[in-house]
Design brief:
- The protein has 135 residues and is mostly helical.
- Helices cover 75% and strands 0% of the residues.
- The protein has a single domain (3-132), classed as NusB-like (N-utilizing Substance Protein B Homolog, Chain A, Orthogonal Bundle), CATH 1.10.940.10.
- The protein contains seven helices and no strands.
- Helix 4 (56-65) packs across helix 5 (78-93) and helix 6 runs antiparallel to helix 7.
Amino acid sequence: MDKSAKRELTFKILYSIQINKEMNEEELETFLEENNIKDKEKESIKADIKNIKDNLEDISQKISENLKDNWTIDRISKIDKALLILAIYEIQYKKIPFKVVINEVVELAKKYGEDTSASFINGVLANVVKELNIE
């Protein structure tokens, strides 16, 4: 599984968590098995999901701080929110180059989101990158 496919699968898990409010270990294992994920990749995805959950408050705060004044995190679609969570996690915690992350997450937004999702996500992430002072 390449990094893009892993990113897309992780997004789908995060989206599912947005819908169901939670995903326990057994549900995650079932999801990964249904998608024919190998053991090594399973552990990597599980670790990412755990780390995202552990840092979700900080990640959500970053999203909130970088929205336009009249927006709240609750107004964001679940797809866009899942993509933003994934992107901020990868940029801030995994130290993946922001240009790679933003490009791929914007492509996922075009594939799964609404017509305005890609530009919305691009704008929020541009602000996050400026705030984190990453070059």
